[in-house]
Amino acid sequence: MIEPLKIGILYSRTGPYGALGRDAWDAAEFALSEYRANGGRQIEFCFFDPRADLSAYLEGARSLIRDQGCRHIIGTITSSARKEVIPLVEKHDGLLWYMCPFEGFEANENVIYLGSCPNQHLIPLFDYLIPRHGARPYLAGANYVWGWEMNRLARELVANAGGEVLGERYLPLEETAVERIVADIAEKRPSFILNNFIGPSSYAFLAAMHELGKRDPAFLPENCPIASCDLTECELDDIKAGVAIGQLSALPYFDSLSSAENRAFQARLRTWQPEPRKVSSIFASAYAAVTLCIAAIEASGSDEPAAVRREIVSRIWPSVLGNIAFDPATNHAALPFHLGRINAENGFDVIASRPAIVADPYLARGTQKPTPHLRVVS
Length: 378
Hints:
Elements: E1 5-10, H1 18-37, E2 43-48, H2 54-67, E3 72-75, H3 79-91, E4 95-98, E5 111-113, H4 122-133, E6 138-142, H5 145-160, E7 167-171, H6 179-188, E8 193-196, H7 200-215, E9 226-228, H8 233-236, E10 248-251, H9 260-272, H10 281-300, H11 305-312, E11 335-342, E12 348-357, E13 375-376
Parallel strand pairs: 1-2, 1-3, 3-4, 4-5, 6-7, 6-8, 8-9, 9-10
Antiparallel strand pairs: 10-11, 11-12, 12-13
Helix pairs in contact: 1-10, 2-3, 4-5, 10-11
């Protein structure tokens, strides 16, 4: 009997970003169910939940690689967790499939990047915001690499536009005491706000800014929008009802996209799970990572990481995110940009889009050159 090949799934379903991990976990289970329904028996999945403990990510990766024999791990949400497990994946010459938006400035031959980097989210977001709202933003973020790097890049973009950053503040991942930041924003009156908070910090911030907008119309979303590059549908139920309506998020996927690929994907999902749900970018990206990993293993005839890596960069792959090509120099996917506005149904209306953007994780082409105009959706 031939031993099945194993793929590790590494996501936290609890903690400050538990909603994201649960959606990614569900996506992996959906992909596995489809694989089995189509007769797939060659590959098995091994799940590990680190419960948002950074040290447990390393434990989980070690267990999946050493004990379970996984040569591929699909997972981690935060950049901290990704950076924690990469050295172990490198040591064992495996592949980590990472599918969350991140701050860029990283390319590793042992990582396949299905998450958008700044030239695929932050730069087109600012291309949209600055002409409409001005170049005097306020920057707020989680006190770790995502918040630091995103705000650093934002400062550069604002300087290139001849603007001024009016304030920059950080909070620990689970901190919800946002009053001083909101008071500072009320005093400085920025033209828009870049929200790089994660989980409960972000939710508390949106709620507090909603109250400020009720007191001062200058801070209503249409006048001073709050824009994120990581806020997805699966989190909106965790935000106080109604407080985030009108705010923005820049992602490669939204549930409301009307493409044929998305309609077919959602129809299959409803067959597997009839309960209504909004499909998040996290769910779609995790599903894409799993299905592409399986497809590349089967196409190469082996789970040997080098062979799979050669296969994944050798062609264009159909996916729920559209047709995806990977840059062989960086292992990064070219991804579309969509800008969504939160609506009253806890979803997003897509208001601007760009077709797939080739990843430039090190911004080697610079941040000063103007980018093509966005297609604005009325």
